Amino acid sequence: MKRFVIRAAGFGFFLLAILVAGIWLPPSGMNDSLLFALPDKMVRLEKLKSPRIVLIGGSSCSFGFESRIIEERTGRPVVNMGAHAGLGLKYFIDQVRDKIARDDIVVLSIEYEQLADGESPAFYGGSLLVPVVVDIDQYAVNDLDVNQWKTILKNIGYYSANKMVGHVETPIAAIFRKQALKKRKWGHYGRMSFNEYGDVRKELISVGFSVEPSKSCDGPLLKPAFEYLIRFDRYLKDMGAHLLVTYPAMQRSSLVKIAGFASEVDSALIAGGLTIIGKPTMFGVEDKDLFNTMYHLNASGRERHTLRFATLLQKHLKAIGAGL
Fold first, then answer.
1. What is the C-alpha to C-alpha distance for residues 168 and 29, in angstroms, rounded to an integer?
2. Does 238 map to a domain?
3. Residue 287 in contact with residue 211, Cβ under 8 Å?
4. Cα–Cα distance measured from residue 157 to residue 110, given in angstroms and rounded to the nearest whole number
5. What is the pLDDT of residues 240-263, one digit of tens each?
6. Residues 6+ apart with CB under 8 A from 254
7. Is 1 inside a domain boundary?
8. pLDDT tens-digit readout, 55-114
9. CB-based burial of residue 163 (10 Å sphere; 0-12 exposed, 13-18 middle, 19+ buried)?
10. How many domains does the chain have?
């Protein structure tokens, strides 16, 4: 029995050593992914002088806004912090919270799934949190809550193993395949796919693809998410900044499928005293405006959506005394 315990402990220590070694290895094959654009966007945010407009949200934000138009219409410098929704709305808020200054405008574009309850609420993020916390934004650990830690602990072993395999596999594969060490083609999901504002570059989304309508979410609202938004709103007001919440441009036929849920979201946000730009139905778009998902717009669709949004934004800025 004693020998078995010793062997089991030794094996456990061996696995732990592998896990730790994998965590400390530099990322393999992901250096050019969109996740590594997060520090680039943060650099722009920190360089811009207030009063600024800070766009935050999932990929519907980076695919849905043409920041140049918003900047021209409002006279304020703009940064698009939009990234993959798999990081969770909570992360997006925490990422910019300490960077916001007096008179800044934070525009929060909320993908509906982020406010739905379920077994693994999207609001807290998913497995993509692991590479961000381990390799990109280590300071994020200071803001993680128990739900995010559960997700990280659940996925960190797999991520660590993948990193180790990547560091071993790539050099070996190169012996047999001359092209093995060429950079992965990330396309519109890469670090270099963003322009100076943080939007996905126009030339990458010039042609759209067919998108099948789908029902993206259902079920009860995630009450802690709304409470978090309300606290964030109060935090900004206390420092003299402003939070404006809006809805993403979304394939109209898919929006119809979640009309009831979208209406509940709108009512809950209003009940929480948040300032809302528009109604969900105002941002439904036709298939001709889509790029490759119900939330991703092609170049012409993005321009149309941004012009419509910028007009609404200007009215809100004047209402709060922050217009031109």
1. 12
2. yes
3. yes
4. 30
5. 999 999 999 999 999 999 999 999
6. 213, 214, 215, 216, 294
7. no
8. 999 999 999 999 999 999 999 999 999 999 999 999 999 999 999 999 999 999 999 999
9. buried
10. 1
Question: Distances from the Cα of 142 to the Cαs of 83, 174, 224, in angstroms?
Answer: 20, 39, 19
Q: What is the dihedral of CA 290, 291, 297, 302, to 10 degrees?
A: -100
Q: What's the CA gap between 270 and 274, in Å, rounded?
A: 6
**Dist. CA 324–CA 310, nearest whole Å:** 13
How many Cβ atoms are within 10 Å of 36's Cβ, its own excluded? 19
Judging by DSSP bridges, how do beta strands 275-277 and 284-285 pair with one another? unpaired
In terms of residue numbers, what domain contains 295?
Answer: 33-145+186-319
Residues 101 and 239 sit within 8 Å (Cβ to Cβ): yes
In the chain, the N- to C-terminal Cα span, in Å, equals 78
The phi, psi pair for 242, rounded to 5°, reads -135, 140
Closest CA to 302 of 82, 125, 113, 53: 82
Instruction: Give me the CATH number covering residue 287.
Output: 3.40.50.1110
Helix %, strand %, coil % of the chain (to 5): 60, 10, 30
* Structure tokens that stand for 310 in this block: 């910028």
CA separation for the pair 304, 314 (Å, rounded): 16
Overall pTM > 0.90: no
Nearest Cα to 208, choosing from 319, 141, 299?
299
Instruction: Give me the long-range contacts of 225-231 (CB less than 8 A, separation at least 24).
Output: 225/89, 225/90, 225/114, 225/115, 225/121, 225/123, 226/115, 226/268, 226/269, 226/272, 228/90, 228/93, 228/123, 229/93, 229/108, 229/269, 229/272, 229/274, 230/272, 230/273, 230/274
